[in-house]
Write a structure and sequence with these properties.
heterodimer; A: mainly alpha; 4 helices; 2% strand; B: 489 residues; alpha/beta; 45% helix
Chain lengths: 80, 489
């Protein structure tokens, strides 16, 4: 277990999506809360590659999904 | 319309969907139709079957509180939930110079760094440790805690920790409840930040001061210039405020806000709790609104004659320049992509300068604000002053909709306010202008300054024209041929 952090120099595991961003014709889909994309976009200083930053599709789960699950939302977004 | 009931005893503020009836998607036609639906209560949130990344409340809670000079910000959540806060630390340092503040303390953001173990056993101990360490390392006068989805979902009792630590270290520890998943309307984070400030930092008034509260972001120091002839000083909230100056906000002669979306809650709380009158008139963008706003200010301060003098003097100084700009900009077609109500204000500026608004995508819409006053309804004022805006939609930063609109409407200029939106204009070869400073376009002088920047942007289009040839856009031809509301249910 690591403790708290002052002035973080790394981000959470969602940062992995930036690898997908570097691949032409590949689109990462975020199954996350609404702000996660902004956080990662900000962390990488808006390096958006093929379809990064705010272009990434995201399920943006809300209170309802936290309680009842958001898998259907994910299905829908992959389909569209 | 109804006022919001203020209750500072409860921990968190009600989200905007419930409190103000705010919506984030609407494809009903023109601006006038939106105003009409909002005023008769028939406004309905549209549902998208496809969505791109949105903003979240925690960012907005942080962007105000991180800027309080003698405070420290702690993000209670996983490390990723404060990944973009260094942007605010940067703005803090850079924009401070515009306020004449050069000796600013570097922002140190703390994260409680919640991990798997804490999501099971709770993160309260880590929060305690972080608060203690932050206090020992920085000796701030107040500590802000912004909460995140993870902290909310595991149900950490932040309020108990905060009260306990407050007793231990002896300074205000303010919890800002701004979990991202709680609200679709990310500006709820502003309300959460101001709720915390109002609960913990604003003190009951002891005397009256010759100051006017200015609820704002980090724009340049315009208001001291405006208030000086009236004998008042600006008390900027919350960026670059101090714990002390937030404390005596209750002693001000009035409260104004550069954007009702930002300040609606605090301005209302200060009026309800401490009797500080709110300047309800929509902010001073465009000539009619600048006059109306100054008159409202004069009315509140009891300085009607002085204000008339200022208006007269400004008209003499700036009207000829505005007229000259109108000649050059006449008939240019503009699309606006920005938040409410700054986007509405941009619509006023560009039409005051003789340009044509051919559409707008505004991130959210509040049919009413906390004061319940119709004077604050910016979009209604814009429609009344300059007429309707076609192709108006409420769109929470959905880039695919923006790109479709830009491609089909082919404006001469894109006006934006948020990073990430203006790049689409540039990629499609459309000159794009992003000015982050809200104070820049205010008043008569603002029209001149904005007009000059617009002219510069339109005239220097070589770069975007070249970029268009080499940029790739991930959207297909199919999408450009679809109606923009294809993914609306």
């Amino acid at each position: 277990m690591s403790g708290f952090i002052e002035q973080e120099r790394y981000t959470c595991a969602i940062g992995a999506l930036q690898t997908v961003v570097a691949i032409p014709r590949a689109v990462p889909i975020l199954h996350s809360g609404p702000g996660c994309g902004t956080m990662i976009g900000g962390f990488f200083e808006r390096a958006t590659g093929y379809a990064g930053g705010n272009t990434m599709p995201c399920t943006n789960f809300a209170e309802k999904d936290v309680v009842f699950g958001g898998v259907n939302k994910l299905r829908k977004i992959v389909r569209s | 319309m109804n006022k919001t009931n203020v209750n500072l005893d409860i921990e968190s503020v009600e989200v905007r969907e419930q409190r103000l009836g705010a919506i984030t998607s609407w494809h009903g036609g023109s601006a006038a139709e939106l105003v009409e639906q909002a005023s008769c209560g028939s406004l309905k949130e549209g549902q998208r079957t496809f969505s791109q990344c949105l903003g979240c409340s925690t960012t907005h809670g942080a962007c105000q509180t991180i800027m309080v000079q003698d405070s420290v910000l702690i993000s209670h959540g996983p490390v990723g939930c404060s990944s973009c806060f260094h942007d605010f630390a940067f703005s803090y340092r850079v924009s401070g110079a515009n306020r004449g503040l050069t000796d600013l303390k570097e922002r140190h953001v703390y994260s409680t760094n919640l991990e798997e173990k804490e999501t099971i056993y709770g993160g309260a101990q880590k929060l305690r440790d972080t608060i203690r360490a932050a206090y020992e390392r920085e000796h701030p006068n107040a500590i802000f805690i912004v909460t995140t989805c993870a902290a909310g979902i595991i149900g950490d009792d932040v309020e108990s920790v905060v009260n306990e630590m407050e007793a231990e270290i002896g300074i205000p520890v303010c919890a800002v409840y701004c979990e991202g998943f709680r609200s679709r309307v990310w500006t709820t984070g502003f309300d959460a930040a101001y709720h915390a400030i109002a609960r913990k930092l604003v003190k009951p008034p002891k005397q009256k001061r010759k100051i006017i509260n200015v609820i704002n972001f980090w724009g340049y120091d315009l208001f001291n210039e405006w208030f000086k002839p009236l004998g008042y000083e600006a008390n900027y909230i919350a960026p670059y405020a101090t714990v002390e100056s937030l404390g005596y906000a209750s002693e001000a002669a009035a409260t104004m806000q550069v954007c009702p979306t930002l300040g609606t809650y605090l301005a209302h709380v200060l009026e309800q709790e401490y009797g500080v009158p709110e300047i309800k008139e929509a902010p001073p963008y465009g000539i009619p609104q600048t006059d109306a706003w100054f008159r409202n200010l004069g009315e509140v301060l009891g300085l009607e004659d002085e204000v008339e003098k200022i208006i007269k003097q400004k008209k003499e100084e700036y009207l000829p320049k505005i007229e000259a700009l109108r000649e050059k900009l006449k008939g240019k077609k503009v699309y606006v992509a920005a938040g409410a109500s700054y986007g509405h204000n941009l619509l006023a500026i560009l039409r005051e300068l003789g340009m044509e608004a051919i559409g707008a995508g505004i991130f959210h819409h509040e049919p009413r604000f906390d004061s319940g006053s119709e004077r604050t309804d910016v979009l209604k004022k814009v429609v009344n002053n300059y007429g309707d805006v076609p192709n108006f939609n409420v769109c929470n930063k959905q880039e695919y909709e923006l790109v479709n609109r830009l491609y089909n409407l082919k404006p001469d200029l894109l006006l934006a306010r948020h990073g990430g939106m203006s790049r689409w204009g540039a990629k499609l070869g459309i000159p794009s202008l992003l000015i982050g400073d809200e104070h820049f376009g205010m008043g008569y002088e603002g029209l001149v300054k904005y007009g000059e920047r617009i002219l510069e942007t339109i005239e220097n289009d070589e770069f975007v024209k070249n970029l268009e040839k080499h940029a790739f856009v991930p959207y297909t031809k199919w999408w450009f041929e679809q109606p923009v509301d294809t993914f609306m249910k």
